[in-house]
Amino acid sequence: MHGTQLVYACGYTLAEPGWPLAQPTTCFRLASVSKVPTALAIFQLIEKKMLSLEDKMQDILQLSTPSGDSPPDSRFSEITIQHLLEHTSGLGDIDSLGVLKAFKDTAHLPVTAEMVNSALASLNLLSDPGNLKKQRYSNTGYYMLAQVIGTKWSQTFRPIDAYQKHLFTPLSITRIRRGVSLIADQPPDEARYQNHDIRVFKSVMSDAQPLVADGYGSDPNPIEIDEGAGGLSAAATDLARLIAILISQKDSPGGALTRDTLTGMLAKGAQLTAAGFGRAGYGFDALNDLGGGQQFYGQKGGLGDTTGTVFQFNRPQGWGFTLLQAGNGGALYPSNLVYPDVYPDFPEVMNIAQNTDWGSADLFPEFGMPSL
Predict the structure, then answer these.
(1) Parent domain of 197
(2) How many domains does the chain have?
(3) Verdict on whether the full-model pTM lies above 0.90
(4) What mean pLDDT, rounded, does the chain reach?
(5) How deeply is 237 buried, as exposed, middle or buried, from its count of CB atoms within 10 A (0-12, 13-18, 19+)?
């Protein structure tokens, strides 16, 4: 991306003969980069005065335990939207087998979002909500943000429906969707996933739990219920559209988000990064204020056993890029590193981009999206 123009888009295939060829419009699982649109969708609700950072998660969702009781930990009712965005909710993680245990083995696989919600409501928090000293990167927190998004727009909405109708459609984005777990359900334009070690695991998609290839039903919970934290799939061309609105100095098209709202979201994340809190929050791993609360650098990485994702922008310089990979995510993010090195910056890519003459053409229209 250069400014709001898409200046380069390409698919690369490094695989055995007969492997599906990657295209710019091939969809790849985003892993934790799913948190970026989740944060944007939350701030869209805030902009429309349908939500505030101080609102309590439980006041919105009204969750009960599998037995129908109120959450046993009184602190559960104190979790706010801000706590979820900043990874300070105190919520722990739970997998499909943990959900079944919470239901005393009366439930069946695959688990549903409603089952996960009830199981989480039955657990004790790991720390007091809002305690930055106990900040803990939380997929569960962003999973819950998606539940809030779906509930706020409509009790009958799946979170992905709310994302697509209210955030993606105004931006002319058509290729960001909810991922699916099973090979049989993969759309034809989805990347093929394979861990280089050819690992197999017990499936969480049926009670029989057959062995499945890594990435196809082996996740802790079904991908289909995890839009908020790691369950989205996207084409790089459409994900680049989100980079464009973050770089842009104007309001987003279609009334999606104003520049003031975007700046406010980025500024809050930059305050956390500046204070030394890793995996900053507000959808990003790192946000830096580069100019008077108006110009920002942002970076988010996503890592799975069979996928790796990069999302990066620099508003003052007007450059950004996204890279989506199917295969061993460790090829992008070595598994022996810890944060922040596990999600490194990619200055070489940005330097090449800034020193290349891309011409004046905007490629967005070639992929069905008008120029911004």
Answers:
(1) 27-367
(2) 1
(3) yes
(4) 93
(5) buried
